[in-house]
Amino acid sequence: KAGVTQTPRYLIKTRGQQVTLSCSPISGHRSVSWYQQTPGQGLQFLFEYFSETQRNKGNFPGRFSGRQFSNSRSEMNVSTLELGDSALYLCASSSAPPGQGGGEKLFFGSGTQLSVL
Amino acid sequence: QKEVEQDPGPLSVPEGAIVSLNCTYSNSAFQYFMWYRQYSRKGPELLMYTYSSGNKEDGRFTAQVDKSSKYISLFIRDSQPSDSATYLCASINGGYNKLIFGAGTRLAVHP
Known about the structure:
The complex is a heterodimer of chains A (about 120) and B (about 110). Chain A is mainly beta and about 120 residues long. Chain A is about 0% helix and about 50% strand. Chain A is globular, with a radius of gyration of 13 Å. With about 110 residues, chain B is mostly beta strands. Chain B has strands at about 5, 10-15, 20-25, 30-40, 45-50, 55-60, 60-65, 70-75, 85-90, 100, 105-110. In chain B, strand 7 and strand 8 form a beta hairpin. The radius of gyration of chain B is 13 Å and the shape is globular. Chains A and B meet through strand 4, strand 5, strand 9 and strand 10 of A and strand 4, strand 5, strand 9 and strand 10 of B.
C-alpha cells in the first residue's frame, strides 16, 4: 500500500511569489491535514480537510490556504511568499474522520522543503 | 508558554544505553499522547500511542503518561545507532486530527 505522497520534494521560490504544494493521501483515507515544520517553531498545524471541506484551521495568516478534491487529494497554496515561510511542509492523512480519531491513525508524508530567497 | 514542552537536546548516548525522553504539557483536556520518530529529510512516523495515564510497551520502547503531573516519557532500552533520530511528543487537542507537538529531541546513539 503506497504511503502519503507529496510533490514536489524541494522547491525554491523568491519573496512575493506564490507556491502550490500537492499531497496524495493513502488510498481510502479521506482526511488530510497540513503542518509546517521550522527549526524555530517546530511542527505547527495549518489546516485539516475532510470530504472537500476545511474542518479545522491553525493560527496562520490568510496567505496560507488549501483545498481538497473529490478523490481526497489535497493542495495547499501560499501567496506572497515571505522569507519566514521557508519550512518543511508536511501532509498527513487519516482514515478517521475529524473528531473520531486519537491521532493513532495519522500517517505523514516526507514533506516538501520550501526555500524562499 | 507552549502547550507541549520538550527539551530539544541534543542527546548523545553510547550503544546499549537506556534513553529517557520527556515532555510536559499544560492542557488538562489532552487525553491522547503520541511519540513520533523523525529521520533526517523524512516525515514523522508514529512510534507509540497511549490514551490517558499509564504505561505501554512495544519491544524496546516504553511510553508513560502521568496525567497528575502532566508528564510524558519515552524509554528506549538497548539503544541502537539506528535509533538516532529526532523524537517528537504530541497530543491531540479538540478531537480533530490536530496534533500539538513538542519541539523534538535530537538523539544520537554512537557505536
